[in-house]
C-alpha cells in the first residue's frame, strides 16, 4: 500500500498536454511518419522513440482530456495522434470530442472500425453517436443491439432534443419494498456491480411502478433487519421524459441531487438521470449559447478550415449588412441637412452607439430575469417603467454632458440642445425595445437570447440617426 | 406505504410560484396587512385566509425555490413574504438568494435574528454569509463558533476567491486502512450519519495523511471480512486548496466525480469538494460572466431601484461614450471631405458596423478556444492566418457587393471601389485585433472575455471611419 502522492491534478495534465502538442507541432516529420506518408528510415531512431513516447503519453490520458488535445491540433497532426489511440478508447473519445472534429476523425475509419469503437460504449452514448455522427449509422448500431435494448432505444429517440428523455440512461438497479436491508446487501454482493454514479437504488413493485428510492447511505446506516419500505424515501423527486432538460438541471442544482428516477405518466420507472449527464448537458448548452450570441455556428471551431468558417459566418454578416444598409439609407434621407451642417455627420454615431449600448444592457437583464423566472407578465409594467426611468436619467445626465461638449466644440447652443434631446429620446427607444423584444420573442415561443442583440442594435442605430438628423432638420436649418 | 404519485416536478413548482405571486401582486392590501402597516380588520377574513394560504405555500417550498420567488417580487411584497418565512429556513434562503436582494431582506432583521438564522447552516455556508453579507458579521459569527472550527474558518478565508479552498467543505468521514468492511459498517451505524452527498469515505493514517478513498459502493459490494486497504482506491484524484475552482470543475466533469479530497502540500487531508458546490460555483460564475459581457454589475437585478441601476451602468456608458467621442473626432477630421461628398456620411456606418461584427465573431472563437486550452502559443500563427483569410474572403465578397451597390446608387464607380477597399481593410483590422486583443489580455493575466468586445468595437469603429474617409480624401476629391 503506497501513500497517495499529493499531486496537483491540473498541473500534471497540463504537462502531458504540453508534451504531446510540443512533439507534434515542432516536428513535421513525426506526423508524416506516424501516418506512413514518408517511409520512415528505420535508422531514424529519434522518430521511432518519439512515436513510442507519444503512444505512452496518450495511453495515460482520460478520454475527455484526449478529446481536448485532439481539438487543439491542426488536421494533419490530429489524424496522426488519432491513429495512436486504442480502439477501446476511441468510442469514448468520440463522445467527448466536439462535433466539429468528428469529420476528420472518422474519415479514415471504416464503418466496421466505427461500429467496433461504438460497441465499447454505454447504451446512451451509443445512441448519441449513432444519431449524430455524420455517417448515418443509426440503423446499423440498432441491429447490433439485442432486441430488448433495440426497442428501448427506438423509444428514447422519439423524445425531443433537450428533453429529459434524451439524457436519461437505463442503468437501473431496482429492488422490492418487502425485503430486508441484509437481503439487499446480499443481492448487491451477488450482482457484484452497481451502476456508475449511483447514490440510491429504486424501489418498484412487480409492475415496475416506482414506490420510492433507497439511498445507499440508508442501507449502510440502518439495521440489517429493517425492511426496505420502512426506511426508503417514498416521495422522491421524479422527472418525466418530456420535461425540459433545463428544468431538470435547475432541480438538480436546487435539491442537490446525484441521481433521480424518470417515470412515465402512469408512474412506471423508465430510466434515471445522473448529475454527470446533467453537468454535460449544461456545459454543451452554455457553449452553444455563447456561440449563438456571437453569431458563430456550433459547427465551427478554431481549427475549421477557412472555407468552412467563411460559410458559417455568412448568414450573420448578411443580416448585419442589411441592417447597416437600412441605417445608411436613413442617413441618406438627410443628405441635404448634413451638407448644410457637416458637424452632424461626426456627432450622429454617438447618439446611435449609446442607444445600442443601453439597449443591450436592458436585454441582458431581461433575458436573465426570464431564465430565472423572475420576469412574468404580472410584473412587466413595473419593469418597463423601471427601464424607462433608468434610460431617462442616463439620457439627461450623459445627453446633457454631450450637449454641453457639442455647444463648446461647435459654438452652437441649439446644436447642443438637439444632441441632448436626441440622446434622451434614443435611450428611451432603446429601453422600450430592450424590454419588448425579448418578451415578444418568448411570446412567439422563441429563444429570447438569440438575435435580440442584433435587433436592438439595428433599431437603435436606425432610430438614433433618424431622431438626431430629424430634430436637426427641424430646429437647426 | 403509498405509491409515489407520478407528479411532474417543474409543473408543481410553477403552480406554487404562480399562486404566491398572484396572491401578493394582485392585492395591495395583503402585503400591507402582513407587514402590519394597516391594522387588519379582524372581520376581514379574506385577508386572514390569504395570509394563512401564503404561509402554507411558503412552508412547502425548498429554500432555493423560495429564494427565486423572493427575487421576483418588488420590495414591499418581498418583505411581506419574508416575514412569513420560518427562522430555520431563513439562513438557507439567504444563501440561495442573489446578493442584490440581501439588502432588503436583512434590513428589518436584528443582528441577533441574523446570527440565529446563520446558526442553522453548515460551516461553509456560515462563512459565505458572514463574509459577504452587507453588515460586517464575520467577527460575530466567528465568536459564535467553537474554537476548533474558528481556526479552520480563519484558515479557509485566507484562500483566494474562486479557489478550491473557498468552495471545499469539512464534512469528512475518515477511516483507517487496516479495519474490515464489517467494522466500517458498524462504525457507520454507530455514527448514524454520513455527510450529505457522500459517495465515498476517506482513508487516512494517524497523521491525517490521505492514503486512499473507499467508495460506499465498494463497502456494499465486497465481503465484510475484507480490509479497507485491500479494496480502497489508492490513487484518487486530489485537489489542493490553491487550485482554481474552474479547473476543479472541469476535472469533475471529465472524470464524473461526485466528491473528491482536498489535500495540502504534504498530502494531509484538509477537506472535500462535492459536485453540489462545483455546480453552484459554475452557475454563479457563468451568471457573472453573462452580466459582465453586457456591462451590468453583479449587484443589479431586474428589481433593483432605478437609482441603483443608473449607478451600476454608469462606468460602462461612460467608457462607451468616450470611445464614441473619439470616433466622432476622427470623423471631425474629415469634415471637409464630407462636405464635398455628403454620400460618405451615409456610407461610413456600414464600414464601421461590419468590422465590429467580424471582430466580435473572431473574439468569441478565440476566447472559447482559450477557455478549452485549444489556443496555445504554438498554434497562434496558424490561427492568425486563418482569421485573416476568413476576413479577406468575407471582405472581398461583401465589400465587393457593397461596392457595386454604392456604384449603382450614387453612379460613382470610384466611390464603389473605395467602399470595397475600405471594407476589406477594416475586416482585416478586425480579424487581427480580434486575435491579438484576447491573447494580450491573457498575457497580462486578465480575463479575455472581459472588455474585449468593447475594445474591438471601439477599434473597428474608429478604424473604419478613418480608413473609409481617408481613402475617400485621397481618391475621390
UniProtKB/TrEMBL annotation, chains A, B:
Give the subcellular location: Cell membrane; Membrane
Outline the extent of the CBS domain: 232-288
Q: Matching InterPro entries, A to Z?
A: CBS_dom (IPR000644), CBS_dom_sf (IPR046342), Mg_transptr_MgtE_intracell_dom (IPR006668), MgtE_N_sf (IPR038076), MgtE_transporter (IPR006669), SLC41_membr_dom (IPR006667), SLC41_membr_dom_sf (IPR036739)
Q: Is Magnesium among the key words of this record?
A: yes
Q: What does this protein do?
A: Acts as a magnesium transporter.
Family to which the UniProt record says this protein belongs:
Belongs to the SLC41A transporter family.
How is this protein named in the record?
A: Magnesium transporter MgtE
Species name: Rouxiella badensis
Amino acid at each position: 500500500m503506497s501513500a497517495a502522492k499529493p499531486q496537483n491534478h491540473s498541473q500534471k495534465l497540463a504537462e502531458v498536454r504540453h508534451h504531446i502538442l510540443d512533439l507534434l507541432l515542432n516536428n513535421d516529420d513525426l506526423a508524416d511518419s506516424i501516418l506512413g506518408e514518408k517511409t520512415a528510415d528505420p535508422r531514424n531512431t529519434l522518430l521511432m522513440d518519439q512515436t513510442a513516447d507519444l503512444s505512452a503519453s496518450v495511453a495515460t490520458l482520460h478520454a475527455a482530456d484526449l478529446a481536448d488535445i485532439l481539438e487543439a491540433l491542426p488536421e494533419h497532426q490530429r489524424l496522426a495522434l488519432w491513429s495512436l489511440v486504442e480502439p477501446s478508447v476511441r468510442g469514448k473519445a468520440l463522445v467527448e470530442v466536439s462535433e466539429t472534429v468528428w469529420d476528420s476523425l472518422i474519415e479514415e475509419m471504416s464503418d466496421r472500425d466505427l461500429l467496433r469503437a461504438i460497441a465499447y460504449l454505454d447504451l446512451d452514448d451509443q445512441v448519441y453517436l449513432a444519431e449524430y455522427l455524420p455517417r448515418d449509422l443509426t440503423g446499423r448500431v440498432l441491429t447490433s443491439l439485442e432486441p430488448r435494448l433495440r426497442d428501448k432505444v427506438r423509444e428514447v429517440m422519439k423524445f425531443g432534443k433537450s428533453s429529459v428523455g434524451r439524457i436519461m440512461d437505463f442503468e437501473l438497479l431496482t429492488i422490492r419494498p418487502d425485503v430486508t436491508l441484509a437481503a439487499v446487501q446480499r443481492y448487491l454482493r451477488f450482482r457484484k456491480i452497481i451502476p456508475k454514479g449511483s447514490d440510491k437504488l429504486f424501489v418498484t413493485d412487480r409492475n415496475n411502478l416506482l414506490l420510492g428510492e433507497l439511498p445507499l447511505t440508508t442501507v449502510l446506516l440502518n439495521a440489517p433487519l429493517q425492511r426496505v419500505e420502512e426506511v426508503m424515501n417514498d416521495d422522491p423527486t421524479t422527472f418525466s421524459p418530456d420535461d425540459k432538460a433545463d428544468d431538470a438541471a435547475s432541480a438538480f442544482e436546487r435539491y442537490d441531487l446525484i441521481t433521480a428516477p424518470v417515470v412515465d405518466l402512469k408512474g412506471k420507472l423508465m430510466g434515471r438521470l445522473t448529475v454527470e449527464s446533467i453537468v454535460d448537458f449544461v456545459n454543451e448548452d452554455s457553449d452553444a449559447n455563447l456561440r449563438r450570441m456571437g453569431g458563430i455556428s456550433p459547427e465551427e471551431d478554431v481549427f475549421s478550415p477557412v472555407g468552412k468558417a467563411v460559410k458559417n459566418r455568412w448568414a450573420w454578416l448578411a443580416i448585419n449588412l442589411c441592417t447597416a444598409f437600412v441605417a445608411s439609407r436613413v442617413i441618406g434621407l438627410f443628405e441635404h441637412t448634413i451638407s448644410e451642417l457637416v458637424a452632424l455627420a461626426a456627432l450622429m454615431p454617438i447618439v446611435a452607439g449609446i442607444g445600442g449600448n443601453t439597449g443591450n444592457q436592458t436585454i441582458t437583464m431581461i433575458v436573465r430575469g426570464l431564465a430565472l423566472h423572475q420576469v412574468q407578465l404580472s410584473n412587466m409594467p413595473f419593469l418597463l417603467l423601471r427601464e424607462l426611468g433608468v434610460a431617462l436619467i442616463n439620457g439627461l445626465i450623459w445627453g446633457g454632458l454631450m450637449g454641453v461638449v457639442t455647444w463648446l466644440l461647435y459654438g452652437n447652443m441649439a446644436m447642443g440642445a438637439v444632441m441632448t434631446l436626441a440622446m434622451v429620446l434614443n435611450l428611451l427607444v432603446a429601453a422600450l425595445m430592450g424590454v419588448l423584444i425579448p418578451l415578444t420573442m418568448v411570446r412567439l415561443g422563441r429563444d429570447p437570447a438569440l438575435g435580440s442583440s442584433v435587433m436592438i442594435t439595428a433599431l437603435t442605430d436606425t432610430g438614433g440617426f433618424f431622431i438626431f438628423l430629424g430634430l436637426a432638420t427641424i430646429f437647426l436649418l
